């Protein structure tokens, strides 16, 4: 016999009961669990003439979310060489932070530079966490968020279905991120997004709005598991991967170069033109619409080519009668030139269970649930990124599968692929689902958050590759950056007004911030690639940072004199670059206004006009 619980004993909620009854009869009058009274009235035959009817996709908070993509970032990315691998040489980036703020910060440096973006965002299943953007101050919200585990170790935010804005919250989170992500893509760049049934329909509509419906290339079906759930009416065993191009026309014109290489089995015959196999000459499906119908060598059918072409091929020895049909020679060399991909990715090696097992082996433990399979992401890289220097971005990095896939793809194909991955230091709670991961962080002596797990995974991947390929010379390192508030107290965050903001700034360094922090903040302000190395030079006894082969010089020392400025000009002239560099000093680095003016005019005489001070 069941016990009478407190819930049973409380009085019956009549309103909730009525709402439930209404919902059963009029499901169309409910949106995100709430009654839409206008729709209810219409369902009952009462039409309002003024009700606007047009095709649109709308939800609570949409315009605010759109605005959010446009508000400037207020933070910066602080370099962490001590957590990085091969800091001085690597071009790969691991950025710890909320991806919205990070995407904003990356706009200047990486706009139009990224070949492929893959993301695997929270699917909004009700159990996974959806980042709560704070419209008022995004960065403040982030800094608060990173501390958001209560005294018992439970996480404070989630997006439960009962919250009333279930789909809206998710869409508000996704809209600004997709908008900013699209800006990063090259003209021939593409973006893949994994999703499941919970938000697939909304994601397609959102993606169409951000990228344009004409740029939707495909909704790929990815078989993700073999097992069956007994608690479902039909057990789902696939996810979707939604693919958008920045510009469908560009991709379409290059389509013969894209796709996956074909299976090259069965080319067992050989003639003077090389290895070949016979393939049927009839059109797809035999009586394919539009294929010519005629009789050749006594065989009647719908054929791939005209009778004239058939005869030419026959005369050249490329077509022959085999049994009751006609067959043509298909050469291995031609097969190698064709690349094709279909929309069903059904390969069992792409299962999530296999991915989990591999990750467990690499990490000596199982700190992350349901990672994507490396070969799944490698398949996407193989499709689109085959040039040296191609940049792959993943701003929902999770356990770091995309970074791992780039490394494996690079070593297998001896190709230079760069990655930029972003991951929130999402605190690991002590709830059952994350307990193992939290304890894993304790074991490796790191703070309890997901970013630590992914960094550890990438480090282990690099070490494994080094071990298995001792002669490999490719890039196995990564530079770590962390999202934080600006290093400069009074810095106006508006990128457009660089001059104003730089000149107005009063205090240079906040407590606890170093010169390298400032140097990288300037990288972002000036739109430089964060992978450029920072060289230091001693100029007239002072330290000068030089970036991008003499394109930016930064000196944060005091007592700047004309002698120093002349020595700096000499240094600049030692670089081949024709373009005049940009130079940044500290405002307080000049003893007097006259010294500052002197420096400015000496630099101007040398053709250096872009001179700023902090
Ligand atoms: C579904 S998981 C990605 C799993 C990943 N594909 C893998 O194979 O491991 C989504 C990840 O996005 C992270 N995330 C969620 N919101 C974020 C945000 N605003 N900024 C950065 N990362 C975020 C979560 O912490 C989570 O680890």
How many beta-strand elements?
23
Number of DSSP helical runs: 20
* Oligomer status: single chain
Instruction: Please give the CATH class of the largest domain.
Output: Alpha Beta
Query: Could you tell me the strand content as a percent range?
Result: 15-25%
> Strand arrangement, largest sheet?
3-18-4-17-16-5-6-8-7-15
- For the record, give the distance between the C-alpha atoms at the N and C termini, rounded to a whole number: 75 Å
General description of the model:
- Helix 20 links the parallel strand 22 (582-585) and strand 23 (611-613).
- Helices cover 35% and strands 19% of the residues.
- It is an alpha/beta fold and 614 residues long.
- The chain is built from 20 helices and 23 strands.
- Bound molecules: S-adenosylmethionine (SAM).
- S-adenosylmethionine binds next to strand 17.
- The site of S-adenosylmethionine has 17 residues, from strand 17.
List the helices and strands and how they pair.
Layout lengths: L5 H4 L4 H12 L4 E2 L2 E2 L1 H7 L18 H7 L6 E5 L13 E4 L2 H12 L3 E6 L18 H8 L20 H19 E11 L4 H12 L4 E8 L14 E8 L2 H6 L15 E3 L2 E7 L12 E4 L2 E4 L4 H9 L3 E4 L2 E7 H6 L6 E2 L6 H12 L10 H11 L5 E5 L6 H13 L3 E7 L8 H12 L6 H19 L10 E7 L12 H7 L10 H12 L7 E6 L2 E6 L4 E4 L6 H12 L8 E4 L7 H13 L5 E3 L1
Parallel strand pairs: 4-17, 4-18, 5-6, 5-16, 7-15, 16-17, 21-22, 22-23
Antiparallel strand pairs: 1-2, 3-18, 6-8, 7-8, 9-10, 10-14, 11-12, 13-14, 19-20, 20-21
Helix pairs in contact: 4-7, 5-7, 5-18, 7-8, 13-14, 14-16, 19-20
Bound molecules: S-adenosylmethionine.
């Amino acid at each position: 016999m069941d016990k009478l619980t407190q819930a049973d004993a409380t009085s019956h909620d009549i309103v909730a009961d009525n709402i439930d009854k209404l919902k059963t009869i009029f499901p169309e009058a409910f949106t995100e669990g709430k009654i839409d009274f206008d729709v209810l009235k219409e369902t009952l035959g009462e039409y309002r003439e003024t009700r606007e009817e047009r095709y649109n996709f709308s939800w609570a908070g949409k315009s605010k979310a759109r605005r959010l993509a446009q508000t400037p970032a207020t933070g910066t990315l602080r370099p962490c060489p001590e957590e990085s691998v091969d800091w001085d040489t690597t071009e790969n980036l691991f950025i710890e932070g909320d991806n919205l703020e990070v995407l904003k910060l990356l706009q200047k440096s990486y706009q139009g530079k990224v070949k492929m973006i893959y993301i695997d965002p929270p699917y909004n299943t009700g159990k996974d966490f959806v980042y709560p953007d704070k419209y008022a101050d995004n960065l403040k919200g982030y800094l608060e968020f990173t501390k958001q585990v209560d005294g018992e170790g439970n996480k404070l935010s989630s997006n439960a279905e009962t919250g009333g804005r279930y789909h809206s919250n998710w869409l508000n989170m996704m809209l600004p991120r997709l908008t900013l992500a699209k800006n990063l893509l090259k003209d021939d760049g593409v973006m893949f997004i994994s999703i499941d049934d919970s938000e697939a329909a909304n994601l397609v509509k959102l993606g169409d709005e951000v990228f344009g419906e004409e740029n939707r290339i495909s909704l790929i079906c990815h078989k993700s598991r073999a097992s069956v759930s007994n608690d479902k009416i039909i057990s789902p065993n696939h996810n979707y991967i939604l693919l958008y191009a920045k510009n469908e026309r560009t991709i379409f014109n290059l389509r013969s170069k894209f796709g996956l290489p074909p299976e090259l089995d069965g080319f067992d015959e050989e003639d003077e033109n090389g290895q070949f196999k016979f393939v049927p000459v009839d059109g797809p499906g035999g009586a394919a619409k539009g294929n010519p119908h005629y009789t050749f060598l006594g065989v009647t059918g719908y054929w791939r080519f005209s009778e004239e072409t058939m005869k030419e091929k026959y005369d050249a020895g490329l077509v022959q009668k085999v049994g009751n049909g006609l067959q043509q020679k298909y050469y291995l060399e031609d097969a190698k030139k064709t690349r094709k991909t279909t929309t069903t990715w059904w390969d069992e090696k792409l299962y999530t269970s296999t991915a989990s097992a591999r990750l467990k082996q690499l990490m000596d433990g199982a700190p992350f649930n349901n990672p994507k399979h490396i070969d799944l992401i490698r398949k996407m890289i193989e499709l689109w990124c085959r040039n040296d220097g191609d940049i792959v971005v993943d701003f929902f990095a999770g356990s770091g599968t995309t970074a791992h896939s780039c490394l494996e793809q690079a070593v297998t194909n001896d190709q230079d692929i760069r990655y930029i991955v972003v991951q929130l230091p999402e605190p690991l709670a002590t709830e059952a689902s994350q307990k193992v991961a939290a304890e894993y962080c304790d074991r490796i002596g790191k703070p309890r958050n997901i970013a630590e797990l992914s960094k550890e995974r990438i480090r282990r991947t690099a070490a494994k590759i080094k071990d298995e390929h001792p002669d490999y010379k490719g890039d196995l390192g990564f530079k770590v950056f962390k999202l934080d508030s600006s290093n400069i107290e009074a810095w106006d965050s508006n990128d457009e007004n660089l001059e104003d903001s730089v000149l107005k700034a009063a205090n240079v360094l906040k407590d606890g911030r170093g010169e390298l922090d400032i140097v990288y903040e300037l990288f972002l302000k000036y739109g430089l690639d964060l992978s450029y190395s920072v060289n230091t030079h001693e100029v007239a006894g002072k330290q000068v940072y030089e970036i991008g082969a003499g394109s930016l010089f930064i000196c944060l020392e005091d007592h700047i004199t004309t002698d120093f400025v002349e020595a700096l000009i000499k240094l600049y002239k030692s670089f081949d670059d024709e373009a005049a560099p940009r130079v940044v000093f500290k405002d307080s680095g000049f003893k007097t206004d006259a010294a500052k003016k002197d420096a400015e005019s000496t630099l101007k005489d040398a053709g250096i006009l872009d001179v700023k001070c902090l």
